[in-house]
Design a protein that fits this description.
The structure is a homodimer. In chain A, 37% of the residues lie in helices and 35% in strands. By secondary structure, chain A is of the alpha+beta class. Chains A and B meet through helix 2, helix 3 and strand 3 of A and helix 2, helix 3 and strand 3 of B.
Chain lengths: 154, 154
C-alpha cells in the first residue's frame, strides 16, 4: 500500500456515495481515510441539525453505517464481493453539535477469516464497531453493525 | 378523541418534520396516523434508493426512528415533555424496493407507567418496537428504539 493507493480507496468510496447513494451524499457524508482494515468518514453539522441544535439521529446512523461499505472496498476484493448491512445497533451518548467523524477498524486475523469464509461459501458475516466523535474528541455515539460480504453473481 | 383530533396530531408531527428536521422532511417521510399509543409513518422509495435498487438503510432507520417523536406528541403531554432517542437497533430482513410504512404502538398500561414516572422524576424511559412493511405487506425491517421522555425546562 502507498499513500496514493489509500487516497484512491477513499476517492472510490466517495464516488460510490455520490453516484450510488444520493441520500448519503446529500447529507455531506464523505470518506477521509480508507485502507485495509480501517475506514473513517465525516459528516457536517450544517444542514443536518434537529430542533435541539444537534445532529439528527439518522445522520449519525448513516455516517457510522457507511463505514461497512467503505471498509469492504479497501479490505476485501471488491471485484468479487459486495457488502450488505444486516442490522445495526446505535447508542447515542452525547448531543452531536459539531461536524462528526466516524472511525471503524477490524483486525488482520478477522479479515483473513472473513476472506477465507467468503471464498469457501460465497458469503461471510462480519461485525464492525464504530466510534463517532465530535471536533472536541468527545464520543457522541457508538455503533455495532452486522454486515455480510457476498460473492458477486454467485 | 375524534377523527379530526387524530388528523391534527399527524399534521402537527408533519409540521415538526418540515420545520425542525429538514433532513427527514427531505427524504419525504411523513406521518399518516398518530393517536395515543400508536403512530404510523411512510417514506417513498423515490429518491431514497441505493445501488441494489433498494431503499438505503439510513432511510429505513429514519422512518422507524421518527415514530418515537410522533407517538410522544399524540400520547404524552407535549407542552410538558419532549422525547429523546437514546439508542436504536434495526434489523434488515428483506430488500425494501417500494414505498415503506412504519408502524409502532405501546399499550395503555405502559403509557400510564411512563406518564406517572415522568411526572414524578421529570423523565421516563420507554421502548418502542416498530415494524416496517412494503406495499405488499412484507416486513422488510424491525426496529427497537430506546427513548426518553423529558420534562421541558426541569
Amino acid at each position: 500500500m502507498t499513500d496514493s493507493d489509500e487516497a484512491s480507496y477513499a476517492d472510490l468510496g466517495n464516488a460510490g456515495l455520490e453516484h450510488l447513494l444520493p441520500v448519503v451524499h446529500g447529507m455531506g457524508v464523505r470518506f477521509t481515510e480508507s485502507e485495509p482494515g480501517r475506514c473513517v468518514a465525516v459528516v457536517p453539522i450544517e444542514g443536518n441539525g434537529n430542533h435541539f441544535g444537534a445532529m439528527y439521529a439518522g445522520v449519525l446512523f448513516t455516517v457510522g453505517e457507511v463505514l461497512g461499505g467503505g471498509l469492504a472496498i479497501s479490505t476485501f476484493d471488491s471485484s468479487a464481493y459486495y457488502p450488505l448491512v444486516k442490522g445495526l445497533d446505535i447508542r447515542f451518548l452525547k448531543p452531536a453539535t459539531t461536524d462528526i467523524t466516524a472511525t471503524a477498524s477490524i483486525d488482520p486475523d478477522t479479515v483473513a477469516k472473513v476472506t477465507a469464509m467468503a471464498e469457501e461459501n460465497g458469503k461471510a458475516d462480519f461485525v464492525l464497531e464504530a466510534e463517532l466523535t465530535d471536533t472536541n474528541g468527545v464520543v457522541v455515539a457508538r455503533t455495532v453493525g452486522d454486515y455480510q460480504l457476498r460473492s458477486i453473481g454467485r
